[in-house]
Specification:
- This protein is α+β, with helices and mostly antiparallel strands.
- It has four domains: 110 residues, no CATH class; 226 residues, 3-Layer(aba) Sandwich (Rossmann fold); 86 residues, Elongation Factor Tu (Ef-tu), domain 3; 88 residues, Translation factors (Elongation Factor Tu (Ef-tu), domain 3), CATH 2.40.30.
- It contains 15 helices and 28 strands.
- The protein has an eight-stranded mixed β-sheet with strand order 8-7-9-6-10-11-13-12, sandwiched between helices. A six-stranded antiparallel beta barrel has the order 14-15-21-18-17-22.
- The longest helix is centred in the first third of the chain and has 36 residues.
- The chain starts with a helix and ends with a strand.
Length: 607
């Protein structure tokens, strides 16, 4: 079963990538046609910045090469070389979305560092140019001054003395406005009572927990959540990092009064204005009763990574395994937090065993130093690594490493394969509100293209598959007003002349053009049945999750020779939406469930 799942997942990825590559080419062509009629403003300036990046790094494709070149120029102490180093540094920062981890001195082999087998005396374990302590300190000062000249800030992430002196620095340019602040979306999952909300409360408020869940009180949205201590809705929390790399936290007092604790938090606007990077946490429910809400949060929120919280006294039990399998099925990188307790050794053994199993194929890395946290964050998602943080919300142990890791994660909108700006607008609706004196407000993620206030857009499909035209009145990002948003960003838009009851989650907003968007009622997909205790036949109904869409579907046809599907079977299945058509595209991943998760797949054809 594990081998089948592994092969199927790689096939899904291939279909997904192939279809999206086709759509990108078609989208770019469509956008060019649209741009012939309307001139796009503000792109000239952007082009100039990109040209600067290209000019500065034409011969320096490799960032390690660029680092060595900068260090060489700065150590020569010649003013002309200093200017060249500044230009390369500016280009390096521009290319990396205003954030770069710069390393001074010989660097250890990552494989040995993550495995904890690093040997100072083995030359093969080290690469790069050795620097003395004095030279490292001189270069640190020079880089700090040079970064300040281009308007950035430098912070020391990690330094080591001894045989191989080395330093890791974070170079960061403050974003010019809130609309350009990089954001990382993290979904937080785990079994009921594993400490998800408490961990988030400690991370975003700075005050430690009292062992009785005081830290989580400020996160709850409903009265029944405070009374039971259980999250039942999709909560959103943000943690901002200043240009210096330090977390932006409120002033807290030690109080047992829940009202005082709830009030002690910084507003999202305050955090957004000060922050150079924002980590958005999607706090999901752990209880089995709320699995559909958790699934919706995982599929519609487009998280860059999933943080799975494991109570070290309980281990990977119940819904933790379900959440882990969903994250793996959606190919989202996983981070595991463990809250320390007495039966920890057993839990660690169990977690490592599950991660190494054929179904997961992950390499567990225990993060016990700042250096490991820095190195694993900068290469996160590219390799099959799964960082494990052992933290305590009461003593604060391990929280520093987790904050360092979150601070350095690559931003969600930086993933240009997933979110392309050079495409027509596509905005998926994940939340809808009616705001007094404003009207209907939709919240969601820009999947492709860009959107500005005043843009005419089409919203739909409605129950008949039609799209209605509207205009974006105003926009907010993290509760701060913005005028533009680009692919990969999560924004709220107020819409003109749209009634609240005509909008639902799962709708899309697309740019108004000659080519009308099409709603789909029936589609075909490649699916794998993960678990079902009997057989699936024609007319079987299940709840389908596909991006922000959540609707019951019916199986209308399947190509299986026996005409029935059992656990572990693969087939091409035709589905039909029960209540209304939806906007779906070939290559989109889907999950369907009836109670627990039953199967996963990919859309291959629209019928």
């Amino acid at each position: 079963m594990a081998t089948t799942l592994r092969n199927f997942q790689s096939e899904i990825e291939q279909i997904h990538n192939r279809e999206f590559a086709k759509q990108k080419v078609n989208g770019a062509e469509q956008l060019q046609k649209e741009q012939k009629y309307s001139q796009v403003k503000g792109k000239a300036k952007e082009g100039a910045v990109i040209e600067l990046a290209k000019a500065g790094t034409e011969e320096l494709r490799d960032s390690a090469e660029a680092e060595e070149k900068i260090l060489e120029l700065l150590s020569s102490k010649v003013s002309a070389n200093h200017d060249s180093a500044r230009d390369i540094l500016a280009a390096l920062l521009t290319q990396n979305h205003g954030e770069y981890v710069f390393r001074i001195g010989a660097q250890p082999s990552k494989a040995k560092l993550f495995a904890g087998d690093l040997d100072n005396d083995v030359a093969e374990d080290w690469s790069g140019i050795e620097r003395t302590e004095d030279m490292s300190n001189f270069l640190l000062q020079e880089i700090t001054n040079t970064v300040e000249e281009v308007g950035g800030k430098t912070s020391l992430l990690f330094e080591a003395h001894g045989k191989h002196p080395r330093k890791s620095l974070l170079l960061r340019l403050p974003p010019p406005s809130v609309s350009l602040t990089p954001e990382v979306r993290c979904a937080v999952v785990g079994n009921v009572d594993s400490g998800k909300s408490t961990t988030l409360g400690v991370l975003t408020r700075g005050a430690l927990d009292d062992g009785r869940g005081r830290a989580r009180v400020s996160l709850f949205r409903h009265k029944h959540e405070i009374e039971t201590g259980r999250t039942s809705s999709v909560g959103m929390e943000i943690l901002g990092f200043a240009p210096s790399g330090s977390p932006i936290l409120p002033e807290t007092t030690i109080s047992n009064d829940t009202e005082v604790v709830r009030r002690e938090k910084l507003g999202w606007e305050e955090i957004s204005v000060q922050a150079s990077k924002i980590v958005s946490f999607i706090d999901l429910a752990g209880h089995e009763r709320y699995l559909k809400t958790t699934l919706y949060g995982l599929t519609s929120g487009a998280p860059s990574c999933v943080i799975l919280i494991v109570g070290a006294n309980a281990g990977l039990i119940g819904m933790s395994k379900e959440h882990l399998s969903i994250a793996l099925a959606l190919s989202v990188p996983v981070v595991i937090d463990m809250t320390p307790a007495n039966v920890q050794a057993e839990t660690i053994k169990q977690v490592v065993k599950i991660l190494r199993s054929p179904g997961c194929r992950k390499v567990p890395v225990f993060v016990k130093s700042s250096e490991v946290a820095v190195e694993i964050a900068t290469g996160f998602g590219k390799e099959k690594l799964c960082p494990i943080f052992q933290i305590s919300n009461v003593t604060g142990e391990g929280l520093g490493y987790l904050r360092t890791f979150l601070n350095l994660l690559p931003s969600s909108e930086g993933d240009t394969d997933k979110f392309a700006v050079d495409q027509p607008l596509e905005f998926s609706v994940t939340e809808v509100w009616s705001v007094p004196y404003v009207g209907t407000v939709v919240n969601g993620i820009v999947n492709g293209g860009s959107i500005k206030t005043g843009d005419p857009v089409m919203l739909g499909p409605d129950s008949n598959g039609n799209f209605q035209s509207t205009v974006v009145k105003s926009m907010q990002r993290k509760r701060a007003p913005v005028t533009t948003a680009e692919a990969g960003q999560c924004v709220s838009c107020a819409l003109k002349r749209i009634r609240r009851n005509t909008v639902r989650k799962g709708m899309v907003m697309v740019s108004k053009s000659e080519i009308l968007p099409k709603a789909t009622r029936q589609f075909q997909g490649q699916v794998l049945i993960l678990y079902h205790n009997t057989t699936l036949q024609k007319n079987y109904q299940a709840m389908l999750h596909c991006g922000a869409i959540r609707q019951t579907v019916r199986i209308i046809d399947m190509d299986h020779p026996q005409g029935v599907l059992r656990t572990g079977d693969r087939a091409t299945v035709s589905f039909e939406f029960i209540s209304h058509p939806e906007f779906v595209k070939e290559g989109m991943k889907l999950l369907f469930r009836e109670g627990k998760t039953k199967g996963l797949g990919v859309i291959t054809k629209l019928l």
